[in-house]
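sorry for the late reply, my laptop died twice this morning and i had to redo everyting from scratch. anyway the thing you sent over, i finally got around to it. pasting the sequence first so we're on the same page, its 376 residues, then the predicted structure underneath. double check i copied it right bc i was rushing
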Amino acid sequence: MLRSLAYLHDSELVARFQRRCGLFLVGAARHERQDKNSNFNQREKDGAISAGSRPQYEVTSWPLHFLFLVSAGLGHELFYITCLPNIHWSLDPFLCRRLVNMWTLVMYVGQATKDVLKLPRPLSPPVVKLETRVDAEYGLPSTHAMAATAISFTVLLSAPARIQFQFEVGLLIALTLSSLVCLSRLYTGMHSVLDVLCGVLLSALLLFLTFPYWEAFDRLQLSSAASPAAAPALLLLLSYTYPDAARYSTTRGDTTTILGAGAGCSVGYWVNERLGRTFEPRGPLPAPLPALTAAALARGAARFLVGAAAVLGTRQAAKAASLRALYAWYGVRGGDRAAAARRREIEVPYKFFTYAAVGLVNSVLVNRVFVLLGLL
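ok and here's the structure:
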């Protein structure tokens, strides 16, 4: 068992996948083609690859390269705050609510597990690393794999009661999207096979354990008088008590971002329910999918542009205001601000407030702007 786990966590297994997909380390590519059984560790000793400098790479399959880079982008912040809200704006806020709730839970569990287990990411060399921002984070589990699995299958499991579609087609789409994201984590060199498999299995376990309670949680979230205070308080507490890492990484900040967005959306859903306008499909359910006419596509594009501008503008304004207030409160001077933004007492409140504001704008205000502009 331990031997199998070590094999799945081996960096060379990731490097072989990259080479099969046409991604090679410069200096190793020519030799690799001549001898596929060559050992990267030996070449490093021989001086073919310098571990002290960032390895360069060669791409021989550009279609796969772009496919996996786009797939990896589906797990980044910009996708989460501009594209996922389109489910709320253009399809069904009910589905978006389910998705946000599961995304928040799954990502917190995954991120915290990383900083508890502290298992390293694949080594470079032999692996080519195409991302640098999260390289300081630990590896297991892959939260990209967890998020892709949770998002795809939360929507798939929730949609049949809301929208008319062929379930087999939805299943194929869910499997394809989640698989592409998982494979992209190997291609970009950010995770081992073990990281990805554990991410998928952990996400599947959380879906299995929580699925029976989704309806009950919906009712509690929307109808309880305590909901708009309890949800932000709990998620803020989880942000402050996030496990300490041995070194600074983006994990705590990213987790706070997700928890803040979840808190803002949760309050927004409750507010919409109180205002009596949830923007959910009217008439008998499941409702037919909207027709893809030229006019519908144009309105959808306009909603995306207006909505993305609203949430990105909110993020920038809330971030600037919260950082300014926190720097003044803690007496941080100009030259010290970059380092100070990493301190828990500053990073947690500024990110939580910023993304709670984004969640509120996304769930409460954007659709009302669409109504005023005639886009709904």
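The longest strand covers residues 23-25.
thats about all i looked at so far, will dig more tmrw
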